[in-house]
Amino acid sequence: MALDKPYKDVPGTTIFDAEQSRKGYHLNQFCMSLMKAENRARFKAGERAYLDEWQMTEEQKQAVLARDLNWCIRLGGNIYFLAKIGATDGKSFQQMAGSMTGMTEDEYRNMMIAGGRSAEGNRYIGEDGDAQAHRQPQGQAGKLAAAQNTKA
Hints:
By secondary structure, this protein is mainly alpha-helical. It has helices at residues 18-23, 25-33, 37-45, 47-51, 58-66, 69-74, 79-88, 93-101, 105-113, 140-151. It is built from ten helices and no strands.
């Protein structure tokens, strides 16, 4: 039986949950291998040959070769593991995040300094849906919101 996942409704967002973790296991293990200098050198010397040593899907390999981090995330990649690819390429996390949003590094940095991306249009569909804190049984934020909701 599949779990109910109300967070699947967040526009443009892939949540790294247990399902995504299973899907991306080999992709993420490949990324972790890049923590060793000798593996980074092998990867840079022959990217496809190195990728073929891993039990990744062909689509995952293509996403890595394309350096399309959004595609990698959809295929189970975790951004903290995928950062190893960027580091191997000499990219900062800020440069990587910018590429994922379609912005230059400067545009991304300026957006973050200005307070980040607007929440408008990026919230849970059905703003008062089951994923909202006051509808959740756990945590202080949920309890506080529920208490405030009953007073209204």
